[in-house]
Amino acid sequence: MNINFTEKQFKALLDLAFLGEWMANSTRSHDDRFADYDELFQYICSHAKDMGCADIVPYDHEVNGYYPTQEYEEQLHAIIDDNDDHVFWEKLSANLAKRDLDREGGTFESLDDRFRRLLEIEEKYETEFEDNGLANVVIKEDK
Predict the structure, then answer these.
(1) How far, in Å, CA of 91 to CA of 98, rounded?
(2) Is 137 exposed, middle or buried (0-12, 13-18, 19+ CB in 10 A)?
(3) Residue boundaries of the structural domains of the chain
(4) Is residue 38 a contact partner of residue 25, using CB atoms and an 8 Å limit?
(5) Which residue in 39, 75, 129, 139 has the most C-beta neighbors within 10 A?
């Protein structure tokens, strides 16, 4: 198979490969990494010079691999940080809503009713966090 990319398309592919490999491996130990993703990222980077991107993923002879420059990583970490923030607030709202729904107990006539109630609670948290962030979050200590 042969796929042709413009330089712009290759740069987008490189961005996606970096972001995907980061998502898959950034929280894993060296022994627990997805080696296939590392290898694919290295393979894509091996074509960077031909596609005008050698300046952002140069080859490092000491470690025998391609590694993004600090500037390139910082650009992509802005995307990662935006995503992390979004996921944080969504998961926080969703988890608190599930907790509150369980605490409410009660029975529902249907799963749709239960789901609607869950969304009502979740929306309450989303509004609170949009308006106030974590300013009103308090950890109650057991006495």
Answers:
(1) 10
(2) exposed
(3) 7-68, 78-132
(4) yes
(5) 129
Alpha carbons 115 and 39: distance in angstroms, whole number: 42
The pLDDT tens digits for 67-96 are 999 999 999 999 999 999 999 999 999 999
* Cα dihedral 37→5→8→83 (10° resolution): -30
**Phi then psi for 86, rounded to 5 degrees?**
-60, -45
pLDDT digits (tens, 9 = 90+) for 3-35: 999 999 999 999 999 999 999 999 999 889 999
pTM for this entry:
0.80
Sign of the CA dihedral running 101, 107, 111, 116: negative
Q: How many CA atoms lie within 13 A of 72 on its CB side?
A: 18
| Longest pairwise C-alpha distance within the chain | 67
Give the integer Cα–Cα distance in Å for 56 and 66.
10
- Residue 58's SS3 state is coil
